[in-house]
Amino acid sequence: MAKTKKEKPVLEGLAKFNRVSKPMNVLFSIIFIIAALCCVIPLIFVIVISLTDKTSISAIGYSFFPQKWSLAAYGELWNNREQIITSFLISIVVTVGGTVLGLFLNAAMGYVLSRSSFKLKKLYTWLVFIPMVFNGGMVSMYLVITQFLYIQDTLLVLILPLAVASFYVIILRTFFQTTVPDSLIESGKIDGASQLRIFFQIVLPISLPALATIGLFLSFAYWNDWWQAFMYISNKDLWPLQYVLVQIDRQIQAMLDMSKYVALSAAELADRIPTDGMKMALVVVIVVPIACSYPFFQKYFISGLTIGAVKG
Amino acid sequence: MAKVKKEKVRGKKFTFDDFELILLSLPTVIWYLVFSFIPLFGLLIAFKQWSLSGDFFTSLIQSDWVAFKNFEFLFMTSDAIRALWLTIAYNVAFIILGVVIPVTLAIMVSNLYSQKLGKVCQTAMFLPHFMSWIVASYFLFAFMSPDKGLFNSALTALGLGKVDWYGEQAVGYWPIILIIMNIWKTTGYGMVVYLASITGIDATYYEAAVIDGASKWQQTTKITIPLLKQIMIIMSIMAIGRIFNSDFGLFYQVPKATSQLYPVTMTLDVYIYNALIALGDVGMSSAAAFFQSIAGCICILIANAIVTKIDRESAFF
Q1: Mind listing the pLDDT tens digit for each residue in B15-55?
Q2: Is residue B148 part of a domain?
Q3: What is the pLDDT of residues A236-245, one digit of tens each?
Q4: CATH number, domain containing residue B125
């Protein structure tokens, strides 16, 4: 970065001269503003809906300009707090636990692969590379998890399968190769430190930027995951938030089906079925932590993607 | 630590260092064996009449071999063939648009006068990447809900009839909707990758071009795009390797699992899921999964071989 800054004064004259024309710039700017709005507006819309009063929704549908605002949807969410808080805690535990575990597993593998003197390096490279091009597929995975590991309906199934990815291992390997010099590790050894100690006390502390990147990848992946719960979790107490969102629709359908057979008055039915506002409020609860935090973490993401693009 | 020094013999022998490194990586190696390599045995299920007896390996060994019978069943069902073609067609669209749009936008953003505007827009466009498909399906529903959605409100306001977006009537719209959703979610990520390569291009190329009197358009087509070629090829190969895979979230959750929309949303993954979970047909779904794995692997190897032939430098591995 410092280098480009130094060159800037020299380039400035040329950069000013070598630009797209003004109308072009206006056109590009407009295109980008529209594209950016397309990406952000759905989120804003959902926030607005979650703050819209029921009467306004039934009168004019979803709208950016509701007739009446209200916090009732969040109140309804609060009335269902048993499930919501349980699921929130599950999401947090899975995200934190998974990120810590994943960081250790990926970093250990990345470090071992980055040591050029390691005897099994070739074997390990294949171990990491093969899963990138070849996998057992959905059916084998399902059978292995339910009939070999027997971890369905436990927290483990939400955490373990997502913990390691060859992409992360390669990013970390590249980072360790380029930024942790062999001499540092040699000097650690001369001081009598074991490899394990070198890894935990020297390598990890100086690799915080790379660990931050992978940690972010992992925590977003865990927070956004619904697939594991969708396939393997039936116990309500283990549903992560994302899966609650999947289930709400199913439950509404089930209740509507049920109402055909069981005599429920329209008022009773309306009372039991979650309102649209509540669904949107739940979406907001899930999304807002991410939407507020990712702009600050973006640079770590970008640096990770850029390292990852180096050939494996 | 005299022990370390004593055992540190160069050559074929394992040193204490190697031992420690193996110990350090042992948990990850076990993870790889359990979650990546044991499932590979599961591919054999495609050639067996699966019957559950005890655990995974016992069932695998005790099930009878049926050779290609599962595949015969699979390819006799028109649904499976349709799912295969749908998957390929969607992926071709995704691959082409997934290169063209982000590259165009990345070149455009690098040419904006205001770097600040570019940064802000780029951050905004990265947002969908961090949303799950479940959340995206609710975003879409806010616009396309048949009775309350914004689209239908707008159609009514214009005096046109409402469209039942999640019903049979809307089947024709869904391929476009799904493609737009995919672009919406992936463009920000693609832009980041390509923009990183663009900023990495040596500025002296452009200086020389300006001195030679090249226009901005010529600079883009003659310098920027050729220099982006390698990363474009790598991204495409990775996508081609997954041409038989489809994003289950996009094709199942975004259309709210509506069976009326299956003609345009049932890709291979949705088909396998339905066969496995809804019908409990392990044979057929494993045959489809086997096909998906092998064909995907072959595809990536072929794509890489072709690239190596054309341009050794750009090959992926």
Answers
A1: 888 888 999 999 999 999 999 999 998 888 888 888 777 78
A2: yes
A3: 899 999 999 9
A4: 1.10.3720.10
Residues in A closer than 8 angstroms to B193, CB to CB, are: 305-306, 309
* Range B262-286 average pLDDT: 88
ipTM of the assembly?
0.86
Q: For the whole model, what pTM was predicted?
A: 0.87
Closest-CA residue of B relative to A139 is B286
Domain presence at residue B28: yes
Partner residue opposite B132 with nearest CB, options A35, A137, A224: A224
In a domain, B47, yes or no: no
Q: Is the pLDDT of residue B3 over 50?
A: no
For residue B172, the distance in angstroms to the closest alpha carbon of chain A comes to 23
Is B142 close to A143, i.e. CB distance below 8 A? no
Q: Is A40 on the interface with B (CB under 8 A)?
A: yes
Asked if A194 and B1 come within 8 Å (Cβ–Cβ), the reply is yes
B22 and B153 inside one domain? no
What is the tally of structural domains in chain B? Answer: 2
Cα A236–A242–A243 angle (5° rounding)?
A: 35
Q: Which range (A92-101, A165-174, A182-191) has the least confidence?
A: A182-191
Residue B42 lies inside a defined structural domain of this protein = no
Task: Please name the residue of chain B whose CA is at the shortest distance from the CA of residue A103.
Answer: B28
If asked whether residues B11 and B125 sit together in one domain, one would say no
- For residue A176, which residues of chain B lie inside 8 Å, CB to CB? none
Q: Print the domain residue range for B1.
A: 1-35
Which one-letter DSSP state was computed for residue A194?
A: -
* DSSP per position, B225-245: HHHHHHHHHHHHHHHHTTTT-
Angstrom distances, CA of residue B16 to CA of A41, A188, B100, B103? 58, 15, 52, 49
- Identify whether residues B174 and B220 lie together within a single domain: yes
A296: left (phi over 0), alpha (psi -120 to 50) or beta: alpha
Identify the band that residue A269 occupies on the pLDDT scale cut at 50, 70 and 90: low
Cβ distance B207 to A14 less than 8 Å, yes or no, reads: yes
**Runs of H (alpha helix) within A134-226:** 137-147, 155-159, 166-179, 182-190, 195-197, 204-206, 208-224
B153 and B29 part of one domain: no
Domains, chain A, in order of start with CATH, read 86-233+302-308 (1.10.3720.10)
